[in-house]
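Reader question, answered in our methods column.
A reader sent in the components of a multi-part assembly and asked whether the whole thing could be modeled at once rather than chain by chain. We filled in our standard form and ran it. Here is what they sent:
COMPLEX SIZE: two components
ENTRIES:
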Amino acid sequence: MNRILVIAEHDGKKLNPATAKAVSCALAIGGEIDIAVFAADAAAVAGSAAKLKGVKRVLNIERAENAHQLAAALAPQIAKLAKDYTHLLAPSTTFGKDVLPRAAALLGVQQVSDIMKVVDAHTFERPMYAGNAIVTVKAPAMPCIVATVRTASWQACSEDGHAEITAAGTDAAIPQHTRFVELKADVSGRPDLQSAARVVSGGRGVGSKENFAVIYKFADKLGAAVGASRAAVDAGFVPNDLQVGQTGKIIAPELYVAVGISGAIQHLTGIKDARTIVAINKDPDAPIFQVADIGLVGDLFQILPELEQELDKL
Amino acid sequence: MKILVGIKRVVDFSVRVQVKKDGSGVNTDGVKLGINPFDEIALEEALRIRERGTQAEVVAVSIGPAEVQPQLRTALAMGADRAILVETGEVLQPLMVARVFHELVKRENADLVILGKQAIDDDSNQTGQMLAALWDRPQATFASKVELKDKTLMVTREVDAGLETIEIDLPAVITTDLRLNTPRFVKMPDIMKARSKPLQVLKLEELGVTAAPKLEVTSYAPPPQRVGGKKVEDVTALVATLRQRGIL
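And here is the structure of the entire assembly that came back:
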C-alpha cells in the first residue's frame, strides 16, 4: 500500500491553502496520507492540517530551527522521515520548490516537478516548455517517489477530516550555515496573488505607474488581488512580485480580469487554468481575446469606472 | 574566489514550442537555440561580483554535446575567464547534472556556484537545490539581490509571501530569479577576444560520476487549448454574463 507524506506549507500561524491542493494529489495517488508540520510551535497549523480530507496522522516536528522553513534545515529531517513512505509530496510553491529537491538529492531520488495529473502511483503528467508540452513521466518506485504538486492544477481537498496529531522527531543534524534574516511581506492588505479567487491584472495599456491606481481601485471593489503583465513590470508601473506569466506567477483564480494586456504567450501561460478570463482591451485584434471567455473592446479608463458603478448596483 | 556558473543551451524563449504529431518529443529542427535566460542572469551576477572589486575567477560550465560550444563562447564573450564543457550525447536530468557539478566543484575548489533557478525547457527547478544538498552547503534560491560580505552572502529571495533575506556562509549555491539583474549585451571586440579564452572539454565518462536514477518520459502531448473568443458589447452585458456564470 502507498504511504504518502505531504509536507505542510505554513507561515508559523496558518496553514497555506496550497497544502490542501497537495493533499488532493495524494488522494488521487491513493493510500495512507500523513502530513508533516515543521515548526517551532506547530499547534495552530496542525489543527488545520488535521481537518484535511483523508489524512490519517499529522506529524508535528517541533524544533527552534524549524521556525523559518529553511530548506537547509528541513531537508535532512524530511530525508530521515522518508524511509517510512512510498511518496513525499509538497506544493509547487516557492517553499516546496526550495525544500523538496534538496531532500530528493539526499535520498538519491530524481524528483518529479509540478504534477498536473496522476496516471498511476508512479506515473504522472507534468508541464515542460512553459506549459507548451505536457509530458508523461514514470518515476522509479524505489527508494521512494519525491514530487511537487502544481497548485494551479488541483482543487483544495475538503476539510471534513479528523486526523490524529502526534509529535515526531528525527535525529537529523541541522546545519548552521544558513540563517534567516527577515521576511518583507506584502502589506497592501489585498489577497495574495498566488492563491486569490479573483485577480485583476494591468498591462502596458494602463500607461503609467500613476494610472495603475485605476487597477488597484477596481481590484479593491471586486475584492481581488492585483497582478500585471511582464510589459507593465518592465515599464516600471508596478513592482516585479506582481508579474503573472511564465517567468512570474502561474495562477488559477476563479475570475481573471486582464486589463490593457495584449496577451503575449508568456502571459497566457500564467493564466490558462483560470476558470473565467475577462479581457478588456481597446485593440479588438489583441491575442488575449482568443483565450478570454468574455471580451470587451474599449477604453479601460471609461470601462472600469462604469463597471464599478454596475457593481455598486448589485 | 572561484565562481562556477551553469550555462545550458535551450530553445530560445521567444519560440513557441510545438509537440511532434507522434508524441515522441518537441520539434527542435531549425528552431533558434540560446543560453537559458536564467543562466545569463547567473553569469551577469558573477561578473558583477568580480567588477565590484572582489578578486574572482568566473568559470562557465556546460553539459551537453559539442554543439553547445557556441553558447560557452558567448559566455566567454560576456566576460567569463574560462569555460568547461562536460561532453555527453545524453540528455541529463537534474540529479545527474547536480552530481556532475558536485564533481566539478570539488575539482575546482569552487567558493560559489550560481545557476539559473530553472531551465526554460524542462522547467524542473531542482539542480541548484540538489547540488547544495550533495555538497552539504547553503542554498539561496530565487535570488533577487546578492551582497557579498567577506565570507558570507546576504541574499534576498523572491518567495510567494514577499521578499525573504537569508545570510549564508560560503561556499554556497545561488539560483537566480529574473529580477536579479539585466544581462549585458556582447560587444564585437569581446567576441573576438573570447576566441582565445580557454575552453576545456571533459568527457562525461572521464569524471567518474555515478549515474543517477532517471524519470522515464513516456509521451509528449500538446496542452489542452482554451476556447475563448466571445465578446460582449458593453459593461452591462459583461456584468450580466458574469452573473450568469455565478461569479458575481
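What stands out: The domain at 2-217 of chain B is CATH 3.40.50.620 (Rossmann fold). The first strand of chain B starts at residue 2 and ends at 6.
Send us your own complexes using the same form.
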